[in-house]
Design goal:
This is ABC transporter permease. The chain is an alpha+beta fold. It is built from 14 helices and 8 strands. Helix 1 runs antiparallel to helix 14 and helix 8 packs antiparallel against helix 9.
Length: 444
């Protein structure tokens, strides 16, 4: 009886069928992601490019007019300049601080706790960080931490006057000497007490511990006098006379000036009385401008000149921790024997850091730097929240200008789409460089 032979499919055909089946399965799994990618990324990009060639209403084709307006509009040029400042300063500063923190925390016992504190701002949203730093940069030293510290340091070395509003009253023996100083009309004489009355300081603004003024006692070989507030609360009292209820101006500097030179000086006491030596006889007395110097109010952190560096400072506060963690992970992979060999060969810590640690961390530093560059090109919320409305034009960046142009009171979707395309064109090369670098790293 003859055996029955069952025909079999060629092996190549079976492999092709299996490959097709696997491709279909892969396509089935990828299809939802591709649909979402097309709907949320590809279509918006394509529509933005298309819309950028039309006018405000979207009905008239204007060609490249929107792109030409980007180059001619002063506000957008400021946004471009500020974006360039951000790209240069923010990533490099955050990366440098992250590198310093990562290296130093390896040598301290509480390094983990320090890393936690530095990384903690990453848990805060940009909106919350913006609100925090809007208060930090407040111009009022009683509210803004930055100005409170700055004013405290300034006043340590240059104390402001307690009587910035003081000035001579009507029929006063003092006249304006220019530059904020006041001088007596006539020369003074030893043995005749001098009266230097001032007004203009509110009673509640007088320093704590202010005492009642006292009329100076005549001294035959001295020039004596009183500096005080010639004002009686509730009315009454005599002009240019020390009345019992009037307050003394203590700490006032009094100078005796003759022929343009200061020949003697004194400071009024707690009762407003001052005493000058005999050589002040025949000179005129001057209250220098330092007596009336306004209290130092600090720095306008959110003024036109400093608003961009101030906002960059808030960004660095948030992202230095991110840089530190990534660099710290890369630092843990650095071979310790190389560092120890360099130290044995006589290299100091700076040479080890500069010639060994930093070159070995080069790939990690590149990752951090490129990531932050891409991030700052899209910065929006920090600038929008921190910069006051009056200086938003000075702090403007491309992402904020995109929002203001597209959704502001005078919205122009065509110009806004052109700005979006410009931002994409600026970001894509950095992304391509990053992708190329990652492929090279994967091929090693």
């Amino acid at each position: 009886m003859a055996a029955t032979v069952t025909p079999t499919a060629p092996r190549g055909t079976a492999r092709s069928a299996e490959a097709r089946r696997r491709r279909l399965v892969a396509a089935a799994f990828l299809l939802p992601a591709l649909v979402l990618l097309g709907a949320l990324v590809v279509h918006p990009i394509g529509y933005s490019v298309y819309r950028s060639f039309f006018d405000r209403s979207g009905s008239a084709f204007v060609g490249g007019d929107n792109y030409r307006e980007i180059l001619s509009d002063a506000t957008i040029r400021t946004a471009l300049k500020n974006t360039a400042v951000w790209v240069v300063l923010a990533p490099t500063t955050a990366t440098a601080l992250g590198l310093i923190f990562a290296v130093l925390t390896e040598r301290v016992r509480w390094g983990t706790a320090f890393k936690l504190l530095v990384f903690m701002p990453m848990a805060i949203s940009m909106l919350a960080a913006g609100i925090i730093f809007r208060l930090v940069y407040d111009h009022d030293p009683d509210r803004g931490v930055a100005n409170a510290v700055w004013v405290g340091v300034h006043d340590t070395f240059a104390q402001s006057s307690a009587f910035p509003k003081a000035r001579p009253g009507r029929d006063s023996p003092l006249v304006d000497a220019g530059g904020g100083a006041f001088v007596t009309r006539d020369p003074v004489r030893a043995g005749t007490p001098v009266l230097l009355p001032l007004v203009g300081v509110a009673p509640e603004a007088l320093p704590a511990g202010t005492r009642t003024a006292k009329a100076a006692t005549a001294a035959p070989d001295r020039v004596t006098g009183t500096v005080w507030q010639d004002f009686t609360r509730g009315g009454g009292g005599s002009t240019n006379a020390v009345d019992p209820a009037e307050s003394a101006f203590s700490g006032m500097r009094v100078e005796a000036v003759r022929d343009g030179r200061v020949v003697a000086s004194a400071t009024s006491g707690a009762d407003g009385v001052f005493v000058l030596p005999a050589n002040a006889d025949g000179a005129r007395l001057r209250l220098p401008a330092s007596n009336f110097q306004e209290a130092y109010a600090g720095v306008q952190w959110l003024g036109p000149a400093l608003v961009t560096p101030a906002v960059i400072g808030a960004y660095v506060w948030m992202w230095a921790g991110f840089a530190m963690v990534l660099i710290g992970a890369g630092l843990a992979a650095v071979p310790r024997e190389l560092l120890e060999a360099a130290r044995v060969d006589g290299a100091n810590e700076w040479q080890v850091f500069r010639r060994i640690t930093v070159p070995l961390l080069g790939p990690v530093l590149a990752v951090v730097l490129v990531t932050l560059v891409i991030n700052v090109m899209k910065i929006f919320d920090l600038v929008f929240v921190i910069a006051p409305g009056a200086v938003q034009d000075d702090a403007n960046v491309l992402a904020l200008q995109l929002y203001r142009t597209s959704f502001g009171t005078d919205a122009d979707p065509g110009l806004g789409s052109a700005i979006a395309v410009l931002l994409l064109v600026l970001v894509v090369p950095v992304m391509l460089v990053n992708i190329r670098r990652l492929r090279k790293e994967g091929a090693r």
